[in-house]
Write a structure and sequence with these properties.
The structure holds two protein chains of two kinds.
Chain A lengths: L9 H30 L7 H14 L8 H32 L1 H14 L8 H35 L3 H9 L4 H38 L5 H11 L3 H32 L5
Helix pairs in contact in A: 2-9, 3-4, 3-5, 3-7, 3-8, 5-7, 6-7, 7-8, 7-9, 8-9
Chain B lengths: L2 H7 L25 E13 L4 E13 L3 E5 L6 H9 L6 E6 L2 E2 L7 E4 L11 H11 L4 H14 L15 H13 L5 E5 L7 H17 L4 E4 L3 H7 L2 E5 L6 E6 L11 H21 L1
Parallel strand pairs in B: 3-8, 3-9, 6-7, 7-8
Antiparallel strand pairs in B: 1-2, 1-4, 4-5, 9-10
Helix pairs in contact in B: 3-4, 3-5, 4-5, 7-8
Classes of the chains: A mainly alpha, B alpha/beta.
Chain lengths: 268, 286
Amino acid sequence: MSIKFDEHNKYHRLVRTSIITVVSLIAFVCLWWLVSKIANNAAIPEPVETFQALFDLIANGDAVTGLSLSTYISSSLSKFIKGFLLALVVALPLGLLLGNFKYVREFVNPWIEVLRPIAPIAWAPIFILLFGYIQGATFVVFIGIFFPLLTNIIFGVSKIDKVLIDASKTLGASNMQIFLKVLIPSTIPYLMNGIKVGLGIGWMCIVAAELYATPLGGIGFYVANMITYGAFPQAYAGIIIIAVLGLLTTGLAEYISKRVSKRMGMDA
Amino acid sequence: MSKDKIKIEGKKYDEERVRADRTDELYKHIKEGETLMSIDNLRVVYVTDDSETVAVENFTLDVKKGELISIVGPSGCGKTTILRCIAGLLQPTSGKITIGDKECTSPGSDRGMVFQDFALFPWRTVKQNVKFGMEIAKVPKEECEERAMRYIKAVGLEKFADSRIHELSGGMKQRVGIARAMVMHPAVILMDEPFGALDAQTRNIMQEQLNKIITHSERTIIFVTHSVDEALYLSNRVVVLTKRPSTIYKVIDIPWERPRDRASPEFTALRKKILEYLEMQNVMED
């Protein structure tokens, strides 16, 4: 049997990608099974045990604490969303400001360059000490999302097509009108790109913070707790949930970002 | 639209005030063929870290109301520089540009501009692009809509009024650019190699269209081009520049009726003469 895929047919491409993805995932599980057999260690449970634990988690929740999966997820998500919104509210005006004013940017740039490379989770102990558990975790997410957002917005402002500014001037626009009607819209695709990158990092941050500081609760706590009890299949089930949620968040952001770029007539 | 309606709807709309979207009305008192704009002794020097380049020198020109005046010159001369100075996008080193008796020092809606690379807002539709200037000038919504559609029709894009810019061909994009500039009724329209980015065929169609537009409306247009053919086909007068530092070599009156025949003997003869001059200038540069 031979199957021919037409590269120019959207439907064909989709079918081909789906088939490859499914086969790849099956291969991954087989590999995992093989590794668990060879390692013969409780810390690497077999796929079947893990999926059983996963279905059990989805259906009956956590047997140790009695909490449901949705409780864990909503606990993680609420901290995540708070951190994200905070980052957006701070980074957007700051990015536009820094992008527009060269001297302010040159002044602030050293701060950014010093702070940006620090792994967000490194702030967790300090933030938790300063703001308590819940707020502390929010700030860890904030730090994770803030820098990619900020740098993308600054970049977007710098990438603005100068001739568009010229055109608006010859149509009578004031500096304020140029800012509102030209600069902000042309920065949006870059902002979306920043959101996309930021969400991925932010999700890692919240799980890491929960793993580090178990009183935070959330899905990270669940994984950490299961590991303490030696319930590895359950811990792995939690990790799968984390992976799926992370995929969903970035996938959603990617989709929105593409739509926005298309709508704005740009490919950022 | 009646005047009363404007008064009722436009809250901030002061009819006594100079309308930013109708600056041509400011110069009603100037008759066609009289001087509308004066460029007096323009000089532009570009300063870099270690050198000074005189781009334009001693450029003096009176632009008459209702004419299309082209500026041609050897490649790399200051054609676009002059136009950007007139638009107010570039500050000349010295010299004065006036419309009527008003000196132009900064950009304004009295000098509309059409750009070589279109400069359209990609996030706006065709109609929204054409409306941009009127939004800035706070033209009442109904009038804004009516005028935008009128000009979109004039350039033959009524079917694409709600299309996005990336869906259009180059020629269509530039028609949006022209409509966006014309809809504002500027005193002067500046065109910076407007058809330079288009293929030869589209270019001819666009020249034809512009020809129609200028014969039906009394617009004052300063047109920068590197195509002598285009200049002769469209202009009332052609300004030929020297190589850098650019100054005026010659201003040629083109009295021929429109539409012009590119194959006529006088057309080809004059084109040849100008091309020979430009060629000579370019050779001298080497």
